[in-house]
Design brief:
By secondary structure, this protein is an alpha/beta fold. The chain is 26% helix and 17% strand. It contains 13 helices and 16 strands.
Length: 503
């Protein structure tokens, strides 16, 4: 309620925008490489009075509302304790935002990871403040890693992280825990939504950020035991695995439906970290139908190098409906939750909710699988009255610190070789979504994947050097060991476990 009143004040007295959500007093610094100078972008987004508790924005230039709206999407930046890699990641985020000049920036989870997440979270928020850009995000399965307290590692919890985000003026994430109309708590942390108005004052798009949490609970694993067994038979997990990724819960889907129904929003865009099984089904069905068994693809493994390069295709009629591959490909197995194997009429609960309540052209974007980067559209065979076309896809991964195309063993040739650099280069970058808020049927152009290799080619060799060092010495944050770590505990350095020092 307090935040709603703040947003109302912003609509009445715009001059008080930054007074309503003051930046925390302690300012952290971040390092940008190659003498990169950070410049504020010209922000045309206007924050209006919230509607039913949902932050509401429009694009205004002068006194004129505009229907063109650019969203820049990042995911899996994995900002952690590794200083050289994170400096590169920060620099790439800043350079790409300054080059694209988006109206809104979104992050698809695993943004800030490892037990050193508090100083990184403050750096992250401060840089986006300095860029003068509005943003929001969902959390990934690695947000909230706690590390080992006995080594002085005290990471922020997931609730603490979203509350910190909410304290920054340019962050549109409302950290208030959500409930359904029936009073049911909505599962997860940081579930939030944003309404975007068109020039007619209608809610043209509602962006949802839904938390897929870290891992399935013991209760969920018991409930979905048959699906887990099937998951293992498919080769998606080992028989001795005891942990599986979580999913979008019924309470979150219920909240999503209620927001769409109450707001009369024309279309929805859902951002969540873990992919839906529907994405794998559509991708494999497309290829196995189009190529008629010439190169059949299955649900597991890394066999899908054919074809590597993007192969935009015509609409293909399949058993699932009409499918169009827009760009990109699947180069590693997709890590969704066993929950999604319990499908209804060939679709997951979230996909069905988008068909029923997402408008004419809902979309679902995710991260999690760092080497996948495809986008596709599905017009399913269904009796749904909405007759919707659903877009689904992977945001281009931005991670230089965590596992990547190289460390996963997916490179076939020496990446320093000229031929390899052109055909099998690293895919780190971002995705662009250009909205036309006046068009309900086709509200956005095809998403565009942009790689840092293509955009900043002169810096690519240095990026490879960082990734090579990371590959050769890769050690996940959760295996942090004081006796062997290059980053032993130092009470004066927050990136070495120190609790109070600023960077």
């Amino acid at each position: 309620m307090y935040k709603n009143k703040k947003i109302m004040l912003l609509a009445i007295v715009p001059a008080f925008l930054f007074a309503c959500k003051p930046v925390p007093a302690s300012r952290v610094t971040y390092n940008l490489l190659w003498d990169t100078k950070l410049e504020k972008i010209e922000n045309h987004v206007k924050l209006l009075e919230s509607r039913d508790g949902i932050p509401t924005i429009c694009k205004t230039i002068g006194d004129v509302e505009h229907d063109d709206f650019k969203i820049l999407m990042f995911t899996d930046t994995h900002l952690d304790h590794k200083k050289p890699q994170c400096n590169y990641t920060y620099t790439m985020i800043a350079k790409n935002i300054m080059a694209e000049k988006p109206d809104l920036v979104i992050f698809g989870g695993d943004n800030i990871t490892s037990c050193e997440n508090e100083p990184r979270a403050k750096q992250f928020c401060q840089m986006l403040e300095d860029l003068n850009v509005y943003w929001s995000c969902c959390l990934g399965n690695h947000e909230g890693d706690q590390g080992k307290p006995e080594l002085g590692e005290h990471g922020m919890t997931r609730p603490e992280m979203v509350k910190l985000f909410d304290s920054y003026p340019h962050c549109l994430l409302d950290s208030t825990p959500k409930t359904t109309k029936a009073g049911l708590p909505v599962h997860g942390n940081g579930n939030n939504a944003i309404h975007i108005l068109n020039s007619e004052g209608k809610i043209a798009e509602t962006l949802f950020f839904l938390d897929t949490d870290k891992l399935m609970s013991a209760e969920s694993m018991e409930e979905y035991k048959p699906e887990i067994q099937q998951f293992i038979k498919m080769g998606k997990a080992d028989p001795d695995d005891t942990e599986f990724y979580d999913y979008i819960h019924d309470s979150q889907i219920g909240w999503y439906k209620e927001v769409m129904e109450d707001s009369n929003s024309l279309n929805s865009i859902v951002v969540s970290h873990v992919p839906l099984k529907d994405m794998e089904d559509a991708y494999l069905t497309y290829y196995n139908t189009k190529y008629l068994g010439e190169h059949p693809q299955g649900p597991s493994g890394n066999e899908n190098f054919w074809p590597y390069t993007s192969t935009p295709g015509e609409v293909v009629g399949t058993s699932l409906g009409d499918i169009k591959l827009i760009t990109g490909c699947r180069t590693e197995g997709m890590c969704y939750s066993p929950h999604d194997l319990r499908m209804i009429e060939n679709h997951s609960p979230m996909f069905n909710a988008m068909l029923e309540n997402g408008g004419k052209h809902p979309a679902f974007f995710c991260g999690h699988d760092h080497s996948n980067d495809f986008f596709l559209e599905v017009k399913p065979k269904t009796n749904n009255d909405n007759d919707a076309t659903v877009m689904m896809g992977y945001i281009e991964s931005g991670c230089y610190s965590s596992n990547n195309y190289w460390s996963k063993g997916l490179l076939k040739w020496d990446p320093y070789d000229a031929k390899s650099m052109q055909q099998y280069h690293l895919t780190q970058g971002y995705s662009v979504l250009n909205l036309d808020l006046s068009n309900q049927e086709t509200p956005f152009a095809d998403p565009i994947n942009c790689t840092n290799f293509d955009k900043w080619n002169s810096l690519y060799k240095e990026a490879l050097d960082l990734v090579k060092a990371n590959r050769d010495e890769y050690k996940p944050a959760w295996d942090y060991d004081k006796s062997v770590s290059k980053y032993p505990y130092d009470p004066n350095d927050p990136l070495k476990g120190g609790p109070t020092a600023l960077i």
